[in-house]
Amino acid sequence: MTHQLEPMLRPKSVAIIGASNTPSRIGGRPINAMKNAGYKGEIYPVNPNYETIQDLPAFASIQDVPKGVDCAIIAVAAKVAVQTLRDCADQGVKSAVMFTSGFAEQSDEGARAQREITGIAKESGMKIIGPNCLGVFNISAGWYGTFSNAPGALLHPPGSIGIVSQSGAYGAHVFAVSQLRGVRSNYWVTTGNESDVDVAEVIEYYAQNPEVKVVLAYAEGMKDADRVCRALEMARDAEKPVIFMKVGKTDAGAAAAASHTASLAGADAVYDALFKQYGVYRAETTEEFVDIAYACQFGNYPKGRKIDLQTISGGVGVQMADASVKYGLDVAPLPKATQKKLKELIPFAGVNNPVDFTAQALNDPKLMEANIEMTIEEADFDSHIVYLAGVPASPFTRDACREIFANIRKKYPDEVMMMSLIGPQDIVEPFEKMNIPCFEDPSLTVRAMAALTYFGEVFSRGRPDKPSALPKGALPAPVEPIAEHEAKKVLNSIGVPVTREELVQSAEEAVKVWQKIGGAVVMKIASPDILHKTEIGGVLLKLNSEKEVAEGYATLIDRAKKAKPNAKIDGVIVAEMVSGGVETVMGVVCDPVFGPAVMFGLGGVFVEVLKDVTFRLAPFGVDEAHRMINEIQGRAMLDGVRGAPPSDLNALAEALSKLSVYAAENADKIETIDVNPFIVLPEGAVAVDALIVPKGDAS
Amino acid sequence: MTHQLEPMLRPKSVAIIGASNTPSRIGGRPINAMKNAGYKGEIYPVNPNYETIQDLPAFASIQDVPKGVDCAIIAVAAKVAVQTLRDCADQGVKSAVMFTSGFAEQSDEGARAQREITGIAKESGMKIIGPNCLGVFNISAGWYGTFSNAPGALLHPPGSIGIVSQSGAYGAHVFAVSQLRGVRSNYWVTTGNESDVDVAEVIEYYAQNPEVKVVLAYAEGMKDADRVCRALEMARDAEKPVIFMKVGKTDAGAAAAASHTASLAGADAVYDALFKQYGVYRAETTEEFVDIAYACQFGNYPKGRKIDLQTISGGVGVQMADASVKYGLDVAPLPKATQKKLKELIPFAGVNNPVDFTAQALNDPKLMEANIEMTIEEADFDSHIVYLAGVPASPFTRDACREIFANIRKKYPDEVMMMSLIGPQDIVEPFEKMNIPCFEDPSLTVRAMAALTYFGEVFSRGRPDKPSALPKGALPAPVEPIAEHEAKKVLNSIGVPVTREELVQSAEEAVKVWQKIGGAVVMKIASPDILHKTEIGGVLLKLNSEKEVAEGYATLIDRAKKAKPNAKIDGVIVAEMVSGGVETVMGVVCDPVFGPAVMFGLGGVFVEVLKDVTFRLAPFGVDEAHRMINEIQGRAMLDGVRGAPPSDLNALAEALSKLSVYAAENADKIETIDVNPFIVLPEGAVAVDALIVPKGDAS
Q1: Are A121 and A146 in contact (CB under 8 A)?
Q2: What span, in angstroms and rounded, lies between the C-alpha atoms of B365 and B359?
Q3: Which of B319, B362, B445 would you mutate first to test chain A, the one with the most A CBs within 10 A?
Q4: How far is CA A601 from CA A31, A272, A598, A678, B497, in A?
Q5: What does the pLDDT read at residue B365?
Q6: Which positions fall inside the ATP-grasp domain (chains A, B) (predicted)?
Q7: pLDDT above 50 (res A78)
Q8: Which CATH number fits domain B1-133: 3.90.650.10, 2.40.30.110, 3.30.565.10, 3.40.50.720?
Q9: What predicted TM-score, i.e. pTM, was given to this entire model?
């Protein structure tokens, strides 16, 4: 089935409404650009004041143009733009690119007009991009539905990159920078106010378009969670890397985002969760954004993290090794036997990893070939970086370098290899043609290889594991906030382990429960009116005799009555005493765009001081939960510190996954869940306290 | 007084020993380069086989050259190189650049020969750089004492940058990359094996040479701590930024560093301490190294952290705001009145900060000028970044842009201003001439401004505060390890507060001490043979009656005798019970190169799991101690969490400074000190346990 954006991004016929005879004007630029680029479809300039426009016959109105045009460019004033769109829809135009501004970004009145546009798109099925956008282009088709200067930055033939940017100015910026970096883009789309088509829909289009192999996306916020998730999933299934710049990370940034667009920025932690979950690479700077895209366009992804570093400078070898560790790659040593043979080739070489050819390689470049070949043959690396500085550019060594790498590539067509060198485009290009991406900065070469390794892992992992369904006896979401005992009943019903405990109404019952539990117990007052139990002395620890338990009951009731004479008292909770283990916290928050997200972190200072937490969108399986656990800073706590035994990570991961399933099933009913502390033991884990707050509860 | 490297780096006469007629050969390159560059001094080629070399009269040996040559280039084989050096020294040659390799980097024999070279330098006073180095150059003097290809990368007239690199290959790399980036270097020095002149001595030279304003330094390790500290201090006193790349950060990196050079890499934490203490900027990648140098060469440093961000794209504004927060800058909002006026100028602008001109500024560029002027006039920012993408390069807006910024610069010559734009060198240069550094990537523009702000703080701070001297009664360093009570006596004597406590030998004495302390006490067994007291039950808490204290004494003696019948028992410590406060750790380690360094961190998981510690070289004052305290991750703990009161930071800083003074005074006697825990209270602080280990103690 043809994607609904096909007529907009590969149109066979185009109408320009508000066409201009002047090639530099907004309504003239698309016509001029398409004529220059040899666009093969029909071009229909629409303007009632001219017979011909830029030597093409002009039409007085869209009604005069043959029906069923693929795409109309709307370059008319805001006051007539909505009616023009309606006319297009009536004429069976399949899509529209709206340059016109003056809508939601400008005033309430503009926002109302924009809602009309959304309505036209929905009713007619005509796809609309914009308003207030810089348009779209498709270089290989010669289709320039844009008035941006961006196409003027073109330096390379079109390749496999598709760019989509909510912001037109940033879209133009990134196109220019990426051309300078040797990134070969073909598609470029800016979505502006997103009255209909949004960034996610364009990603979806790229995911199914065989011309696009790598997606570069920029957004300040996203509004349609389902479409975003579906689009990212399609891209991952198609093994197309998505590199995303989502701005608005810090508070200062977020404030600027809110003032800039009408879009909802959402909590940044939730975007982080989304990107991790769908294997998206999140770039922090434009330079990183473009550098990773450059690396991805070669389409080779390492199968694992073992990296081989080869260098003509020991110092740069150290830099690359440092960077590899920073980016999570494994600078594994070469096999001892290989090290010995390399030493024989170049006596003063470093042979462990990094392999340092030394300047000797310049005197006899063939040594370099032998060195690299031996490393590929005898060791088992997933990727290779060779640092050569100016050697490939020097007239003395240029030809030898090319020959060496051509030989290596012929023998080992599938090895993932990058080069760090300094030289102009004519020096770099022969290596790029050998499928060897080239970088100037050695540390940033490593960063790019780490990005490819990340995508390699994402693609080989494929779709994440499915979470198990909720158990049959799962309790429904509460209608008012429930704490402690009631909340733990819910957790228990969905398979999240909780402390063994009972709510009792007398000292005798309390003693019976203590006997059943068999060991020291904790006793707590249970009252919906007493939230901070410890403040009134409402928690007693380590009670372990009939006398202690019976007296404890009386003490708690007494304290509660004294502290809050009118409090409703449900009784006293008698619970097993949990000792040892590592304190963690789990929770659920409800994002207005993406719905429930599950949080995980370690207790105490990790959460309170370091904010060391991570999120995932609900629901997710146990494997994803393990990835969450592995990415917190304090991860080592769970391996056991100060001689403590390691924690039961499976029990923890199971609990996170189950909580996520419950949150997803009750997405419309639950506002927040806190499970704090959730103690992970050497065997098993147990929720000690919990709070569940339903939606719409103002208390 | 003339610096001892003056003859090497600004020589009036040069001998090339091993001179070649062929301009491309090692012994021919310097002569060829100097002739092309119009070197004004005398050039004496030395080679017994020629009458003339490259049209200059040749000399058979250094003895035939006029005495007192400023610099000799040694380009002869290793086996005759040492004798050649000796001959130079005998002839009164003032300095030598040794290209020859085959010394410490190659073999033990080579290392012996290198020690001879060091000896010649010491005895004769002739300064020697190398062996195994790529040499030196000084572009403005036309002096090329190098056989590197680096000078071929020259693109700009010489400026104010001095480069020094231990590694020749990396030195050439960074010269090439920095030229591409528009960094105007003049001096370039590679130190190779550092038999005499090291990186630090060259920094010292740059610090006192008025031609150099910015220092770029690269090293894998350093050996002469005093010289390094002196050099960095001179540079800071002269307000010359030093940007340092010191590789070998991670374990993998450090292993590669050790295999590459004969130098001592030292613990990386100690280098971090050194750099922070002397206000050096540590770069992580070559790209960062060069980018910061580029920014520094304009010589304007902001006076504070308040940054004004102006942009033609809201999205990029958000990126820059995010980056500003990341790099510790303050994106302060504009005054409300100014915001209102800006809104009047551009109705749809973002006016808080970032200020978003919107595309309106392109239609009427003068609006931009008014905008920026108003911001400078009415708000109190320390720095400004203006993001303009391709606007300054577009033929429609190029001239207007130049005019606007020329006007602004004329009115406000001292405002620190940067621009983020895309365009070739001819577009960038006019702005550079207005003292506006230009960057492509908006986030990296912010990084560069943050670096300038860092140097601004370093320079305005000047020399750090001097620590107070040790008190008169300070105890000497111990001769064997001392723990707990004895160690705390030492701390107390140097002014570091410790728990009030006494060592007692009877239950009666114990009771007397308890009475004196007046409140609950802790009692601990004191025995040099029992290190892990808690394991044998040797610590009793919260004793607060005559009976408890007397019984406690008996219990502890009893437990100690049972657990270790032969242990020497000194008695029992009766100490005040410290409650509340924040647990921290302080310590001293002795670095083989830099001597004692003081560590600070928070106790518990912060040290054990997160390794959240920071170091400074001893001694240092209270202000430096405050900076240490402020840079740990868990800093917020000291402000009080969960309703705890804030900690007494002055008491903590005082203690760190005093410990540093003691460590420095006893640098040759003390191996390590641990003060753990050191509890910081709302008022005051107190060491609860400590251990001091002297040097040379193997126990």
Answers
A1: no
A2: 10
A3: B319
A4: 56, 15, 10, 10, 36
A5: 77
A6: 488-524
A7: yes
A8: 3.40.50.720
A9: 0.91
